[in-house]
Amino acid sequence: MRLNIVLDKEQKLSPAVINSFEAELTSQIHKSYPATKISIRKGTTTGFELTGFPLESDREKISSIVQSVWEDDSWV
Hints:
With 76 residues, the protein is α+β, with helices and mostly antiparallel strands.
């Protein structure tokens, strides 16, 4: 299972912020899906892709976790 996240390079996020986001996201996702590989990189648009999650409920749960972590800035 993989989660690939692309962050818009125009957001001017520092490597430290990206690393903190990745660490918190990994911590949250690995509670339910320990085998998930997470990749975060910069690109032209923000978005994410899930692969290897056959159930819609799993995809929805991962999406919810990503949104929750992104909106909760306590990891910054």
